[in-house]
Design a protein that fits this description.
This protein folds into two domains: 78 residues, no CATH class; 207 residues, Rossmann fold (3-Layer(aba) Sandwich). It starts with 5 loop residues before the first helix and ends with a helix. The chain is globular and about 60 Å long. The chain has twelve helices and nine strands. It has a nine-stranded mixed sheet with strand order 1-2-6-5-4-3-7-8-9, sandwiched between helices. By secondary structure, it is of the alpha/beta class. α10 links the parallel β7 and β8. This is DNA-protecting protein DprA. It holds the Pfam family DNA_processg_A.
Length: 306
């Protein structure tokens, strides 16, 4: 591998391991990315590590071996990201979002594509809107109103580029954007070279002009269930508040809300008809005391300032 320092080492690690790997994070934290990469790929003799059992370390080395064929080229990944109009952010960079450092397992780095001119806004200037892919007309209307209103107030709307609430949130944020603020950020589960689902490709291209796509995974990586679940923690960490507009009782959107709760972010839900299955997850969070009810944009703004 063509490794020249911390950035290329972290880029290589994102190619070898899945997001939120606790063992990899522990090794990087103790040794640094370059030494961690050598250790985990067998180029350096193993030794005892604090907080990592020998069984866990062996499993991590085996995981790396599954992907390590000797021809992984992190510099090519970096060049490919630049060719897309993006790059790879790592801790210490000027535009590294400090909010992700609140996570128990922070990302090794963040691949991005789009307009990073003014940087990623601070958490108190970002709200995540998430919810059902098969949202109702009611959910679509609320997501659109919230996203448009937040963008008009200079707040960046974060979502996941999926169908339903995600797509409506991105579109409405773009429609309500102001020259002073980044309107929207899409956090995706695969590489930023692909728009997933493909039906939202035009939307993805549209948001790149003034917004960003962000991923923990390098270009060419396909989204998987695990990656979808883990990208929820990035969405939560970038935001001061997470609002679930509509969600079924076991919706994946609730995963993002749970991540937000663990790192002391505000969690909000929109109440819906008690007969609507699409609001059952929202009502569940409210009943558990995990979230507050919101009915208008100003109430989300209040959460950001509290």
């Amino acid at each position: 591998m063509n490794i020249t320092g911390d950035r290329t080492a972290r880029a290589a690690l994102t190619r070898l391991f899945e997001p939120a790997d606790r063992v990899v994070a522990a090794v990087v934290g103790q040794l640094g990315a370059y030494a961690a990469l050598r250790l985990l790929t067998g180029e350096q003799a193993p030794h005892a590590l604090k907080g990592v059992t020998s069984e866990e370390f062996t499993a991590a080395v085996a995981c790396a071996a599954q992907h390590y064929t000797g021809d992984i080229d992190p510099q090519k990944d970096l060049d490919d990201a630049a060719a897309l109009g993006g790059g790879f952010l790592i801790p210490g960079d000027e535009h590294w979002p400090a909010g992700v450092d609140d996570l128990e397992v922070p990302p090794l780095g963040l691949w991005y594509r789009g307009n990073l001119t003014t940087g990623i806004p601070a958490t108190d200037r970002c709200v995540t809107l998430t919810g059902s892919r098969d949202c109702t007309a009611y959910g679509a209307a609320i997501a659109g109103d919230f996203a448009h209103g937040l963008a008009q107030r200079g707040i960046t709307v974060i979502s996941g580029l999926g169908y339903g609430v995600d797509a409506i949130s991105h579109k409405s944020a773009l429609a309500g954007s102001t020259p002073e603020a980044m309107p929207t950020i899409a956090v995706v589960a695969g590489g930023v070279d692909r728009f997933y689902p493909s039906g939202n490709a035009d939307l993805g291209r549209a948001l790149l002009g003034t917004g960003l796509m962000i991923s923990e995974m390098p270009a060419g990586t396909a989204p998987t269930r695990h990656r979808f679940l883990q990208r929820g923690r990035i969405m939560a960490a970038l935001s001061g508040a997470v609002c679930v507009v509509e969600a079924r009782y076991r919706s994946g959107a609730l995963n993002t809300a749970h991540h937000a709760e663990t790192i002391a972010r505000h969690v909000a839900v929109v109440p819906g008809p008690v007969t609507s299955a699409n609001s059952a997850g929202c009502h569940r969070l409210a009943r558990d005391g995990s979230a507050v009810l919101v009915t208008e944009t100003n109430e989300l703004m209040e959460l950001l300032t509290s």
